[in-house]
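Protein Entry — a single chain follows
Next Lines — sequence and tokenised fold
***
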Amino acid sequence: MTADDAGNGSLFGEASRYIGDRVTAALSRIDRVAIVRSVELLASAPQIFVYGAGRSGIIGRAFAMRLVQAGLRAYVIGESVTPIVRKGDAVFILSGQGESYSSIQTANIVRREGAELIVLTGRAGSKLAHTATHLLVLDFPEEAERPRLAPLGTLFESASLRLTDALIAELMVARGETETTMRRRHAIMV
């Protein structure tokens, strides 16, 4: 690519295909037993707490919103109205690298309180992964073109959004929810 090509959309299609293909491949490798167990935990928990830092946190907030719309009691850790995590609750932490201090600290508190900890990460051997009671791993082999087409945590974050949206579809079935019942819980903006 030359400087003349910059900003003219020449990489858009290539990047879009690259991201889509890698995300689809990673999701196809997710352990289905871990998905089923995660859905069971989320569906039965009295309260669900979601945490992620940075862009993972944005994906987590979107997930928490859908959990509420599915009729579950869900909170985002760090918000001023978030209650205390208790034994029996489920906590869902998203972290691409699985090494952020805030995620590990949150996980340690969750474990101390006796709640179930579902960790979604890109690194099965990370510190955060080792704290999980239930682990979901999005594996992305390193490739030379990745930094150019999907910089930083783009692949993990894109896959996390698709994974959490697919979990919502599973939860809808488990809870007998439909788009119509969920719409009744959708925020009304003034």
